[in-house]
Structure prediction request, 280 residues.
Amino acid sequence: MPTIPSLKIRSSPLVEVALTVVTDEPIVDLLGIGNLHKAEFPQYPEIERRAPVAGIDNSEIFNIPPAIRDTDLGAAPRYWLIASDGRDLLQLQERFVSRNWRRQASPLEPVDYPGYDNISASAFEDFAALVRNAGGAGQAPEPVGFQLLYDNVVVMRRRNGEPFKLGDVLANWNTLSGTRPNIGWHLQWGEPLPPEGVMLQVGDTFQPNIPVLNTSMMVGSFIDEGKVETIPVLRITLTVTGQAHSWDQLREFFDAAHGKVREKFISLLTEEIRSEWDAA
Prediction:
């Protein structure tokens, strides 16, 4: 396996990272959400009720059951447990849990990104607390699917104020060398990933776990409130979705997915745009 190049930057384009798991049976009793919140998750002092989600992207490819079933007694709500600074978030639904890190600053401002290792370590502590709590009344539910999301907003403007062309930002895209960013330009595709050693346990047998990496790129804009100026941006969203049948193997799946996301992100971009982020 080729070595994945590192990407160390002081001004990250990341706006959100999420580690998401769907389970076969309810992992949280939402009737007791207040007690669970107080007992297990004091690091997220704020709580908000949100509309439920149906599941994770591409779940039909893997026959991953939805987070809302026909047999459920109505659509259970989703709760957000939010840290004081608003950056760290734990989403809870009966069969759906997601640990998110969210950028709170403008894409033009530097951000203190904690890194995948710290975010994933916190996520697995939260998952373990949910499994302990669910297992107190019997056997804890098992995961049936996972998804890793990396959402990035790349500012299409140099430090000196000159705009980037798409060919200046995207590597190996010679056809876009003279193309200026047009609002609404959108490109999306999916690709299966080779298993590379991480096997999926199904009962007493093991089979290759072949997740799918989805890449979405879209040109948009945001308003710099300080200057009342519209600035073009390139949004790059990368997700890896796959099956999972064991909490023990879930960390391997997420770590492998993170390596693939990092590899894809670096391969998409030119050295020129990376230098704008103070790439080391």
